[in-house]
């Protein structure tokens, strides 16, 4: 693996050197590829166009990120920003000419890339649905294939951005793409539309317990499950770039919270609100603003149990805002307006 890692650093060095003028672009792309963007951005945008596709986004995003966490705990992948120092292959005379960014210092293991895996899974749901819709209207394979071209472009951009900022090695990005695609092919036909609340509560509990059992089992085997957090803190350029919301348990609580929220939303309003296109657009705008402020809510990082509990609640609220609260309010206002 030493050769693979060394070549990965070389690729990152070339990217930073030759595309330094695109730094802001790569940083923006890596934010769009963040797994939480699937819940906060892709989900509301798709839900108000196609409810089933919106539900599929949450379903696929949650399971793919949970599976990514399991893979990371078992594969022990290094990250470039700490491997450079830990490898002891570089001294002052041959240090690679690379630098870190605010998004670099993630604290979980590196393989496979979560950004690449979740992006590959979530956006396949979007482009396959869009491609099918376009083909039903045009009956043209060429035109309906355009979303897939954009899909490949997006995957490439997200992958390059992760290598550029030293968050992942190239082989970790490729592994993320492949696992994400394989997973979504399996999951897309299993969208839990109309399932009872008990299904979501049970499934979310199952994901949480299975991850905790794996965590305990690895520790019983003598594995330091927190090894990556220690290395991230040791080699990150700035202490403030280490964020608790990038820790492995944060992704776990996000996924479980989103699934519980999805179940609650379908429980409160089975089938969702039926709105014309104009109220849907208004609902999307208001939902987006609401999710923006929910995401920016500062959470106490100590004690960590409180942080994870509130982080869970935050993502329980996401489907409620998009599927129940905002569309219900818009329906109430537009319905009254029609009556008047």
TrEMBL record:
Belongs to the glucose-6-phosphatase family. The keyword Endoplasmic reticulum applies. It is found in: Endoplasmic reticulum membrane. One of its GO terms (biological process) is gluconeogenesis. The gene is g6pc3. The lineage of its organism: Eukaryota, Metazoa, Chordata, Craniata, Vertebrata. GO terms for molecular function: glucose-6-phosphatase activity. SUPFAM superfamilies: Acid phosphatase/Vanadium-dependent haloperoxidase. The active site is at 115 (proton donor), 168 (nucleophile). Pathway: Carbohydrate biosynthesis; gluconeogenesis. This is Glucose-6-phosphatase. Keywords: Endoplasmic reticulum, Gluconeogenesis, Hydrolase, Membrane, Transmembrane, Transmembrane helix. Residues 53-188 form the Phosphatidic acid phosphatase type 2/haloperoxidase domain. InterPro entries: Glucose-6-phosphatase, PAP2/HPO, PAP2/HPO_sf.
């Amino acid at each position: 693996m030493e050769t693979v890692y060394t070549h990965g650093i070389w690729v990152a060095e070339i990217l930073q050197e030759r595309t330094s003028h695109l730094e802001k672009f790569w940083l923006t792309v890596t934010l769009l590829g963040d797994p939480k963007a699937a819940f906060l951005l892709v989900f509301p945008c798709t839900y108000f166009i196609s409810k089933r596709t919106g539900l599929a986004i949450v379903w696929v995003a949650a399971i793919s990120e949970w599976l990514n966490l399991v893979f990371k705990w078992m594969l022990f992948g290094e990250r470039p920003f700490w491997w450079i120092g830990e490898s002891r292959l570089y001294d002052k005379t041959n240090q690679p000419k690379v630098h870190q960014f605010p998004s670099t210092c993630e604290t979980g293991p590196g393989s496979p890339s979560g950004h690449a895996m979740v992006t590959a899974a979530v956006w396949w749901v979007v482009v396959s649905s869009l491609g099918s819709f376009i083909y039903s209207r045009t009956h043209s394979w060429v035109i309906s294939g355009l979303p897939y071209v954009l899909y490949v472009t997006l995957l490439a951009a997200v992958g390059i951005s992760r290598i550029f900022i030293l968050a992942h090695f190239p082989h970790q990005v490729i592994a993320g793409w492949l696992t994400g695609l394989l997973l979504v092919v399996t999951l897309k036909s299993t969208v839990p539309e109309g399932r009872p609340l008990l299904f979501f509560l049970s499934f979310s509990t199952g994901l949480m317990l299975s991850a905790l059992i794996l965590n305990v089992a690895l520790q019983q085997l003598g594995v330091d499950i927190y090894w990556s957090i220690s290395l991230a803190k040791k080699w990150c350029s700035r202490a403030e770039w280490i964020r608790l919301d990038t820790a492995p348990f944060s992704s776990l609580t996000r996924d479980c919270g989103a699934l519980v929220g999805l179940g609650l939303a379908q429980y409160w309003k089975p089938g969702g609100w039926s709105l014309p296109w104009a109220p849907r657009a208004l609902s999307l705008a208001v939902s987006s603003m609401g999710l923006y402020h929910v995401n920016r809510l500062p959470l106490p990082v100590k004690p960590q149990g409180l942080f994870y509990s509130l982080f869970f609640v935050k993502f329980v609220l996401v489907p409620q805002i998009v599927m129940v609260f905002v569309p219900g309010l818009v329906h109430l206002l537009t319905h009254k307006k029609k009556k008047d």
